[in-house]
Amino acid sequence: MKVPRQARGFARAADTYERARPEYPPPAVAWLAERLDLRPGRTVVDVAAGTGKLTRALVGTGARVVAVEPLAEMRRVLQEAVPEIEALEGTAEALPLADGSADAVTVAAAFHWFDVPRALEEFARVLRPVGALGLVWNVRHPRARIHQELDALLEPHSAAVPRVREFAATDHFPQGAFGPLEQAEFTHEQRFDADGLVERIASISFVALLPDDERAELLERVRAIGKRYDGPISFPYRTEVFVSRRS
User: Fold this and answer.
1) Given 3.40.50.150, 3.40.190.10, 3.40.50.300, 3.30.70.260, which CATH number is that of 5-246?
2) What pTM was estimated for this model as a whole?
3) Averaged in consecutive runs of 10 residues, what is the pLDDT profile of the chain (247 residues)?
């Protein structure tokens, strides 16, 4: 199973990812769950589930939740965090599921990694005829001073890594069996001390893949930024949510 090198950085940082990455705000999850009609008797497949940041919120809808995640370390953390769900090895382009076996597919903070046409073909295959696809991600708010400072520091290390904030979902819909997007936006934030800020940046895939000495130097510079702030550091996001229905 081929996984992009940058994505494999998440495996190295799986425990850090679980501790440091944000959840999804309840209003965003509620908006998504309503439009996907998630409830008891329905099945939702959470693709590229990672450590289950969205998966655990989907459990609260009462739907049967199946998580698909290619990285063993991510699945390990996912199964510890959400033991009540079924977690399978697989990718968006090769789902280990039968045709027409799901009512909804969700993807959180990973759609920009996919071969989109192939992934959409797979989603259409596993969805029932009236199924739908939900996408959600937290985007670091570009006007926040903390993000501007961190971007200046991170940019030289990011290479050609795909970034969710540079990914326009609307460019890919309608496509194949999927119609236009319905979308909504919510606000969200985390709060960190300097150590928490370091861990948040350490959870980024390209940071995890840096040579040890380069990564240590970068994270010390992140710590220095964090220490310049008085009190808890506000780390704001825009949470973007999209739904496309299978035609």
Assistant:
1) 3.40.50.150
2) 0.90
3) 52 81 97 98 97 97 97 94 95 98 96 94 97 95 90 81 66 94 96 95 88 94 94 94 95
